[in-house]
Structure formats: structure tokens, C-alpha cells
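INFO batch 0412 | record 1 of 1 | parsing
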Amino acid sequence: MTHNTGLKIESGFAEINGASVYFEIAGQGKPIVFVHGLGLDCRMWDDQFFELSDHYRILRYDLRGFGRSSLPGKENYSHHGDLYALMQLLNISNACLVGLSMGGRVVVDFAITYPDSASSIVLVDSALNGYSFKSFSLAGVEGVAKVNGTANGNHAWLHHELFGAARRQPVVVDRLKEIISSYSGWHWINPNPWQPINPAAIHQLDKIHVRALIIVGEEDLPDFHDIADILRSRIAGSKKVVMKGVGHMSNMEDSTGFNHLLLEFLSV
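INFO prediction complete | emitting C-alpha cells
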């Protein structure tokens, strides 16, 4: 996909909640915020950031502990609290929030905690606070990292079954490799004082009253299909779409199809 190379991008580090959070913002119009997945960073949204900034004001950022943002310390923190503080700093009163996997989990917590700050939400191959995974596990990755170091942990993550469909596309796997190999691996070997909402989001989904689109890749793992069904059944008025021929990284594996779905949802 050709990117808008003439795009004016504002980037920097926001000092919020005791963390230094890297962000990029571009374009004009209604704001959209993109939230990345575990072991990844804001670059996973390249195909959306450059394409959709023709129509919208796009914010993407590295969550605390990922990309160029600072690592967690000993103090408790929340990703949704960080996002709220970042939006306040950038004078974004509300936005459409798009989150993939762990990023979806963050978006759900945010929409429940700050209902006036989410105009709509898009949950992509989403995780969900309070859901008990039946087969998906990070134990193998964490085990490798603890015994053989974080670089080997990252290698195990790239080769996890979660990215099976993505690995069939050389261009996508090259981009994932670049992102994952630059990840610190901090979460593989450290206890993380991240605090999700309480009670768990799975028990509070009825509090979400904004328009919600739920996207899941046809070839994603069964747990993520289960979560998509739970989100669809418990968020009133939500719509679920299964993207054909892609797995967990649906926005990268079929960026054209994904962007079409997103633009269609936003145009209503």
C-alpha cells in the first residue's frame, strides 16, 4: 500500500501519570485513536494512519511499556487512564477508539470508565478483561524469555500460533518481525502493575452505549471468536463482522478490507 508521504505528522512524548508516552497525530476532521496489541507498537497501524488521515484526525501511540514509551515502574497504573490523560493533553474531548487484541481490552475499559470520551468503538480481534482463555497462552513465550532472554522470548512470540495466518504473508511477517524484535520484552519477565477496571469489564459491558463494531479474523484463534461473540451479545446495538481469509492481525493482513469496514462504520 502506498503511503501519504507528504503527511504532516506531529509527534512527541506526553508526560502523563508518571510515564513518558510516545504519540503521533496527523490529519484533520473527527478524531480516531488507534490502540496497539501486546508486544507491538503504534507502527502496526501504518496502513490506517497514512490512509485515513485524509479524512480524519488520527492519533496513535505506544502504550506504557511498549515502543518508545517508558516502562512501568512499581506503581499501579491503567492503560485507559493513560489514554484519557493523553487525550486531555491533546485537547481531544472524544474520539472513535480502535483497539486490537490487548488494545481492544484497553478500549473497552476506557469506554466503561469514560463514557463521554468515546464517541464510538471498534474492537478488533479483541481481548477482554475477565475472560478466561481456554487455549491461548503466553506461558511458552514467558518461559523462553525467563530462561533464554527477552530476544528469544520475542522470537517465540513472533512464532506463536496467534500469528499463524500473518506469517503466510511475507510483507506482513517482515513488518511484525521489525516491531516485535524492537520490543523490550519487559512484560515477559516482569510482574506488571497494570490495573484493569474492577469489576472486570466482562461484567460491565451493558454500560457501553456508544456505537460499537466488532471485527474478528476468520482464522483467528477460538478464544478471540468467543470474545467477539460475548462482546456482540452484551454491547447493545453492536455489530460483528468476520473478515474472511485473515487471522489475528486483520488490519495488517487485509488493510484494504479493514479500512473499508472502518470508513463504512465511521460514515454513518
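INFO post-check: The chain has one domain: 9-133+192-266.
INFO record closed
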